[in-house]
Every structure is written in C-alpha cells, then in structure tokens.
Design goal:
alpha/beta; 5-stranded parallel beta sheet; 3-stranded antiparallel beta sheet; 5 helices; 27% helix; globular
C-alpha cells in the first residue's frame, strides 16, 4: 500500500510504501511531486496520473482562514503556470477573502430553487467541461440542494478527482 508522510528531519513530504501493520519500507521513499517544483516535472506526473489529487485546508472553526489560505495557495500555483479555476467559494463578507478572488477565473454557480429560496451550488458540468488542472471547491462537508446530481459536495469532488482534476477544498 502506498501512503504519504512527512519526514520531520528534512521537512519534506514523501511517498512511501507501507506494510499492513503501518511500518515504513524505508527503501521505497521518493519525494512527492508538488506544484512548487518545476512545471515540467509536475506536467509529466500529471499526464501519467489517472485521477486528480485532493488538498484539504482544515480549520477548527468558522472564520479561522481556511478559504483565505486556499485562495492564497491558488494564487501561488497560478503564478507557477498552473491552470486554476474557482468552482465554488462561499460568499463570505470578509473583504480580504473576497479580494483574493481577483485574478482567478470563477466559474458561474448553479442556482437551484428550493422552498422558494434560490440556493447557490457548484456547476459540476461547467467544471468538468472546462477541465482545469486545479479547481477550488469551498466547504467539502456540505449537503447539496435537492435537484443536484449528488446529495453531498464530497461526491461532486470525487467526480472531479475521477476526471483527473486536482481539487483544493476546505473543512
């Protein structure tokens, strides 16, 4: 089985093979590809991968900066030449967070009517048709409105990953 772990001595994330009991097979450690490495290396890895990668921004409560951190990271990877698209970001009224949307392509949201209220959801078909390298999807632990393709947002994310699109999300 293969997993990801952090080598504390070097501070580098690596791929390692693990035995079933969780012990590492040290000879199998190789550096994990990242967007911060050369674009050529990342593109080579990207073409050979059949499914996308998931990056989750965790926070213990609302307002601690999960969305802000995700958008900041999106700008960093976009500066490195990665095709980044905002699939859905919760429209918080925080000026600093909203300012980070400037310079990023934002897909139109899907409006779903439920009990006479228009709800905003990710337009999954638009994201799949656009096929960016990375799509941002805020609030992974969200229940979609009735009438959406999937009941939960994590299922939308799974479909994007299966299509080979990397996803940044928040929890």
């Amino acid at each position: 089985m293969q997993g990801r772990c952090r080598d504390d001595a070097k501070g580098q994330v690596t791929w390692r093979k693990f035995e079933r009991d969780g012990r590492s097979a040290a000879a199998a450690a190789t550096p994990m590809p990242s967007y911060s490495e050369s674009g050529r290396k990342r593109k080579r890895v990207r073409r050979s991968a059949s499914s996308g990668r998931l990056k989750v921004f965790f926070g213990y409560a609302a307002g601690v900066g999960k969305t802000f951190a995700m958008l900041t990271e999106a700008h960093h990877v976009q500066d490195e030449g990665v095709d980044v698209v905002v699939g859905y970001v919760e429209p918080h009224t925080r000026a600093d967070t909203l300012a980070l949307l400037d310079g990023l392509e934002v897909l139109p949201v899907k409006s779903v009517k439920h009990r006479n209220v228009a709800l905003r959801e990710i337009d999954l078909d638009a994201a799949l048709k656009r096929r960016p390298q990375v799509v941002l999807v805020d609030e992974l632990a969200h229940t979609n409105a009735p009438g959406c393709r999937h009941r939960k947002r994590y299922q939308d994310v799974e479909e994007l990953l299966r299509a080979g699109i990397d996803v940044y999300t928040t929890v």
